[in-house]
Amino acid sequence: MRTEIEKVFFKAFEQFGVVDHCIDWMREKYDLGFLPKEGRQLPEQWERYYNETLPNEIREATEAFDDTVVNSLMDEIGSNLDECQSDAQRERYLFSLLKPFKGLSDVYHPTAQINRLRASIEDCKRDKTMWESLPKDKPLFNVAGEHGETPKEQIEACDGSITDDQKKIDRLHYINHRFCEIIGGQINEKNSVEWCLSAFVCVWGAFANRLDALLLERTEFKPEHRSLIWLQRECGIYLKPYREITDVDYYLGSIELARKYISEVRGVEFPDTQQVSAPQTSDDREISMSLDLPSSILSLQPNECQYLYGELTRNGHFMPTGTNQAHFNYVFGGGVCPADFTPLCWNVSKQALSELIIFAAGGKSVPRSINNSIGRVFVDTKKTPIKKLSNPKKDEVSRDWGALQTITNTIKTRSS
User: Model-level pTM?
Assistant: First the structure.
């Protein structure tokens, strides 16, 4: 196999590469480590390192990075896939293409980390239920006859582990939100560390879409090896948590070909729905409806979704700060519905949600198609599905009207 281009390209994203340095700097500057600083101050030499040395190294490495090699890189990857002699060899090679992006995946798509913590919480809950079935204050003995803890103490330990794991999940959501908010926002200072990381994130996204399209087109491979979504789930490294048809249709030749190839791998991407045959419909929203999945309500671009997510979850006013971003992106951007989709929580009035949709859609009323499915994608703070929205009456606006109009106007300005 020839890997000359791969080695040069991936070096920037691997551990101790320039992207890893960007993430390290961001964690220090914005207090985005796994544990909050809580007043901790760096020694003087480390302050100098993060304020001067590291930013200069990042700028130099960013300027030296050649992002024009993606086409050549995809040709190299395609040739290497042709050389694989077995499914096992091909699978190992495909996983090697994802490994360099572990650092970005951990902050932008911490799906695997959160799933592991949720599994740990469920294990603790099962253990707690078992301990609760025993006399709480009766001493326990191990196989050697030694005195152990009481069921009450074990229950307290389970409660402590559950609380700690939930705090870790909340922290991961917060870190993810802040990275998206900072890098997805307006960056005025060119060549700042934020600007450099934003540039690499764009390259990362482009590579993900190119790889996704390349694999979908390889009809000679088994479905698992044609699906970037499946590969990500298997190795716990995510380049993109979901796929929009517009991510790949250009590279595959047409919307129709993209839909055909995506339907062929749907069974391994969403095993719970693999017995359902997806019809050849005119858009992804119709496919979601045919599979009894909730429909998206808008078709914003990824950068628009990222900005809107940051604004609506800021301080938890409109939506909780820990809102699942992949689910949010599906609701407002479309694409393929995540297999574990849960409705988004809306914290303020129904009228404010109506105003948001009207402003974002650019109409004068809530479209009927959106109103028919709104309860499947939004719930209120009591987890009750939001019923059909009413069109705001003239001169009777919500208290959030001005803020929502500013947010949606900014989206239009950023897209123009």
Answer: 0.68
